Every structure is written in C-alpha cells, then in structure tokens.
Amino acid sequence: MTTDKLKTLRVPVEKRAIIVLAAGASMRMGSPKQLLPYKGKTLLQHVVDTARAAEVSLVVTVLGANAEAILQQSGAGINPYVVNENWQEGMASSIQSGLKKVLELLPGLEAVVFLVGDQPFLSSAVIDELFVLMENTRAPIVACKYGSVVGVPALFHKTTFSALMELKGAEGAKKLIKAEGEKAALLDFPQGAIDIDTQEDYLRLLK
Questions:
Q1: What is d(CA 17, CA 98) in angstroms, rounded to the nearest whole number?
Q2: What are the structural domain ranges in the chain?
Q3: How many other CB atoms sit within 10 Å of the CB of residue 128?
C-alpha cells in the first residue's frame, strides 16, 4: 500500500462508490438489527438511502447472516447487493466481497467509502466531506474520528485496494488506517460513536 500523498486532488463523482457493510449476525441484539424500524423504514434502508444521497455513483450493500430475511423485507430497496457467504470468517471477507462487487459494476472505480449499517446519525454531508478532505490533503485514506476511536465511515483511494484485498479474518479497515498513521486524514464525526448493538442502544435511539 502506498504511503505517499496522492498526486491528484479530485475523484470524479462517476468514479466514487460506497459499500455498506451489513453482514453481521446481530448476536448482541438477538434479532437482525438491520431490520429495526427507524424513521419509517428499516435501519439498514435508512443508511443505504443516506449513502445514495451523497455525491457518488454507486452504493453496494454487503449482506451475510440473515440475508434471506433482510431481502424479504427490504427487497429492491437495497439493490445492488452482494451476499458474503463467508461472513463468519470476519470483517475482511465482507470488505473484499463488497469491493469485488463494486469493481465488477464500476471498473473505473477510484475511491470507495466503507459504511456500517448501524450508525443512525450518518449524513450524506459527512460522506461528501470525506471526499473534500481527500482532495484537500491528498491523503490516500480519510477516516472518521469520534472520541478516541478512528474508524468508519472511511474513504480509501484505489492505491489502497490491494491492501484491502489482503486483509484476513477479523481485520477491518481500521488496520489500514492505523498502518497509514499520520498520513491518514481524519474527519471529526462525534455522532459516529452512536451505533446500535443492543436493545438498550435501540431504546435510547428511539427516545
């Protein structure tokens, strides 16, 4: 993976994509959190629609556990999607499933944002700001920062794609963000700290 600053400043909208990672089994929730009602739709649909409102040309959702139930309820609402049959192997397999699907649909891809399906306060403005920050800093990775955590949403330039495809098991995007060190640009997104893992989290969200 390159650790150099990018030479180009701007990624055209038609060469931008988003991958929504939603393959988890929601073990702590006890039921598929992707299907929790939120603002008149499911939590996953809310995130997908937010992603589609950003300045990108393609949004792909990665499903895994509970894929059949999610598709029965969400259907075309989250299309295009890919089912990661190896979701139990960990986050790396979902990242790679999503990236392969995006490259298949958008061969000219230059940069991709990874999202998770349970950050209810994500906005399209946050996603767009990631691209602005990449343009302004020429950083190959732009991640969000909330509290002491650095993570998703996170934007990766095509120069990092080979490294993404080499991730193993439970390794996620955070490994590459950490490896990039100070060369990664960070965007403050305080509300990114709020995700929905348990029934208690969901009840607090509804309040």
A1: 10
A2: 13-206
A3: 17
Amino acid at 110: E
Each residue's pLDDT tens digit, 86-132: 999 999 999 999 999 999 999 999 999 999 999 999 999 999 999 99
Sign of the C-alpha dihedral computed for residues 13, 120, 68 and 29 taken in this order: positive
Burial 39-57 (b: 16+ CB within 10 A, else e): eeebbbbbbbebbeebebe
Superfamily of structural domain 13-206: Spore Coat Polysaccharide Biosynthesis Protein SpsA; Chain A (3.90.550.10)
pTM (2 decimals)?
0.93
Distance CA 204, CA 207 (A): 5
